[in-house]
Design goal:
Radius of gyration: 23 Å
CATH topology of the largest domain: TIM Barrel
Oligomer: single chain
Number of strands: 20
Helix content: 25-40%
Shape: globular
Strand order of the largest sheet: 1-2-5-8-9-10-11-12
Number of domains: 2
Largest sheet: 8 strands, parallel, barrel
Length: 459
């Protein structure tokens, strides 16, 4: 099967994503700051604001281009009450604190001019409790025309101590939308079309697995693909992605299973290379081969601790984890700040402000990621090749990335000593280390401590 015959938006197979939590990326327009905004770099809490905005993202596009990023995923940017904006109060408006519609138009145009695609967050399982339709239900109870937009057990509406209405994970300020109601579906699909018309390149689906109506995301897909089949739909999935990669809902999924496998091998030492290989095999069983290239692979996000923190501050382990990410099949995603060694435990600590003072950067990690992204872009087998495990033991794993135009061996060693790995001589007799340019005799393939070899096979 040729690349062009594969299903889904073909550009994703060449994408390197970067996730931005807009409130913490850069504050370029203090005039839109909310009351009580705190100084940039203050300790993050679940409630405080630092003033990050869309002009800030626009201003920092050169940083992304320099890193090698060609695709962006933004967490919600619609009008909301919190710093994370997963509590929409108006899906039709860009949050004024982020700069409003004018700032959005400038950002989107500038990103596209820089060769960067933009994916927005579709938070359609729930809205915020400050949404005017929910407030109308609170005020008018059963007489509200929006009473069936939500699932309220009785009146008055009571958020405490336990909400008497359906929510997202029991969170009182996130009332669940009733997508069985045709009016709700119509509204959400109109919103979808509104932002598609502005020229975005796709949607990330927030907690789609919590939406019990199985037809909703199929109908959503029809709306999106009816606008342009080349648009990307990516589901947030923490477990098996089987139902999100069969071509009926999303194109791919956030590959948290790969994150668990990589970090389990590199930093947690949960089993060795054999365990890592087995977990990779399970992913292969769950995700169709034709969809592997459409997965969004990641090591960290706004919902996890930072990669360097997870690795206990171990830069070498962090670099090895990123090498495994950037050489895996699927589109890699870098969470903002991870490229400069930003640290942080789980939410809200993982949502620290991006440090723009380069004296605060871990230059080693930044340089390494730039190199890995460049290597990925320059080698078609790393972007579009299939992948398989050739060997694995307690401390190492050897993977093959194979494309009709190129074959590459990826050999990783997590141990504190250099390791020799079984020679893949059945595939070739010699190779070239892509990272160093060094000629490699495959019968003596030695992988450095906490390191990786990326070797192009010469037939």
């Amino acid at each position: 099967m040729t690349d062009t015959a594969l299903p889904g938006p073909d550009w994703v197979r060449d994408a390197v994503f970067y996730q931005i939590f807009p409130e913490r990326f850069d504050n370029a327009d203090p005039s839109t700051d909310p009351p009580g905004v705190q100084p940039w770099g203050s300790a993050p809490t679940r409630d405080n604001f630092m003033g990050g905005d869309l002009p800030g993202i626009t201003r920092r596009l050169p940083h992304l281009v320099d890193l090698g990023i060609n695709s962006l995923y933004l967490t919600p940017i619609f009008a909301a009450a919190t710093n994370h904006r997963y509590d929409a109060v108006d899906y039709t408006r860009i949050d004024p604190i982020l700069g409003g519609r004018a700032a959005y138009d400038t950002f989107l145009g500038s990103a596209h001019d820089a060769g960067i695609r933009v994916v927005l967050d579709a938070v359609f399982h729930h809205c915020g409790d400050q949404h005017p339709y929910f407030r109308d239900v609170v005020a008018r109870e059963a007489e509200s025309e929006y009473v069936n937009w939500f699932s309220v057990a009785g009146f008055p509406v009571q958020p405490h101590p336990v909400p008497n209405y359906l929510t997202c994970s029991g969170c009182y300020y996130l009332p669940k939308l009733n997508v069985y109601n045709p009016a709700v579906r119509q509204h959400l699909f109109e919103v979808t079309r509104q932002w598609l018309d502005t020229g975005i390149d796709g949607w990330r689906l927030d907690v789609p697995y919590m939406l019990e109506n199985p037809s909703f995301w199929r109908q959503f897909r029809d709306v999106v693909k009816g606008h342009d089949p080349n648009l990307y739909i990516c589901a947030e999935v923490w477990e098996s992605a089987s139902e999100w990669t069969d071509g009926t809902t999303s194109d791919g999924a956030m590959n948290y299973r790969l994150r668990d496998a990589v970090l389990g091998f590199v930093s947690e030492w949960r089993g060795g290379g054999e365990t890592f290989a087995a977990e990779l095999e399970r992913i292969d069983q769950e995700v169709p081969a034709a969809a592997k290239g459409l997965m969004m692979n990641l090591l960290g996000s706004h919902d996890t601790e930072r990669v360097l923190t997870h690795c206990g501050g171990d830069v070498a382990a962090t670099k090895l984890a990123y090498a495994l990410l950037l050489t895996a099949e699927g589109a890699p995603m870098i969470y903002y700040g991870d490229e400069v060694g930003l640290e942080g435990f789980n939410d809200p600590d993982c949502r620290r402000c991006m440090p723009w003072d380069q004296d605060m950067w871990n230059v080693d990690i930044h340089t390494w990621l730039k190199r890995l992204i460049s290597v990925r872009k320059d080698n078609i087998a790393l972007r579009r090749g299939s992948e398989a495990t050739l060997s694995a033991d307690e401390n190492t794993i050897v993977r093959l990335r194979e494309h009709p135009e190129q074959s590459i061996i990826v050999a990783a060693n997590r141990s504190l000593l250099p390791r020799e790995v079984p020679a893949p001589t059945s595939h070739a007799e010699k190779g070239v280390d892509i990272l160093t340019g060094e000629a490699i005799a495959l019968d003596q393939l030695t992988v450095p401590a906490k390191g990786i070899r990326i070797v192009e096979l010469i037939r």
